[in-house]
Design a protein that fits this description.
Blueprint lengths: L14 E5 L5 E3 L15 E6 L3 E6 H11 L7 H13 L1 E3 L6 E3 L2 H7 L4 E6 L4 E4 L13 H18 L6
Helix pairs in contact: 1-4, 2-4
Length: 165
């Protein structure tokens, strides 16, 4: 009898301190990678609040971008928010050791130098400098607030008609 192959869902968990090498490379935690990942698997690094960089999957990025496409090009705040995020967004693929080079703009946003910490956040990952690991509050940033509302609205619309968990 054949065994059915189990498809593992990506789950971002744990706390993983890492060194940043001279080429600004970090190694993605092995537990965050799937056996099905290959040289075409992309991760999207997005600046967040509290000196954080969020690591999201291509699927989640696609949903976010579909929501952002609903912003009118004449909406100054909305387009400004999209420009702000897109100017810092980085799309990465991992080398055979699971490493990627962190863009200087994102490293500056998170104030990451020679060390960083990957923090699991269940459906996404977070990269922080060790000294910012405990920061939880920061003044609201209009760009992030707007994109957060857009994604929440899109998620609510896509979940309408589905049974709540």
């Amino acid at each position: 009898m054949e065994q059915a192959s189990v498809i593992r869902k990506r789950f971002f968990s744990g706390t993983h301190p890492v060194a940043v090498d001279g080429q600004r490379r970090l190694a993605m935690p092995k537990s965050w990678r799937l056996s099905t990942d290959d040289e075409n698997t992309q991760f999207f690094l997005i600046p967040g609040r509290n000196h954080r960089i969020f690591v999201i999957t291509e699927d989640r990025a696609s949903r976010l971008f579909e929501s952002a496409e609903k912003i009118s090009v004449l909406d100054g705040d909305g387009m400004g928010a999209c420009e702000d995020i897109a100017s810092k967004l980085q799309i990465v693929t991992l080398d055979k050791q699971g490493r990627f080079a962190l863009d200087p703009a994102l490293a500056a946003h998170a104030e990451i130098g020679s060390k960083a910490v990957f923090l699991g956040a269940i459906f996404c990952g977070t990269i922080v400098a060790p000294e910012h690991r405990q920061e939880l509050t920061n003044p609201s940033d209009m760009s992030l607030d707007l994109l957060q509302r857009i994604e929440e609205r899109a998620n609510a619309q896509s979940n309408s008609g589905k049974m709540p968990i």
